[in-house]
């Protein structure tokens, strides 16, 4: 395995992680949690 093959594998693994995070962030089941977290700076103690 040469350096080019390792770079290709690393790029594909990074892209797969990016797609996984993107899919997780845009799921409807997470929307309520993200909306609540977005309002935290405005909450009064």
From TrEMBL:
<keyword id="KW-0812">Transmembrane</keyword>
<keyword id="KW-1133">Transmembrane helix</keyword>
<keyword id="KW-0472">Membrane</keyword>
<dbReference type="InterPro" id="IPR008621">
    <property type="entry name" value="Cbb3-typ_cyt_oxidase_comp"/>
</dbReference>
<dbReference type="Pfam" id="PF05545">
    <property type="entry name" value="FixQ"/>
</dbReference>
<protein>
    <submittedName>
        <fullName>Cytochrome c oxidase cbb3-type subunit 4</fullName>
    </submittedName>
</protein>
<feature type="transmembrane region" description="Helical">
    <location>
        <begin position="6"/>
        <end position="25"/>
    </location>
</feature>
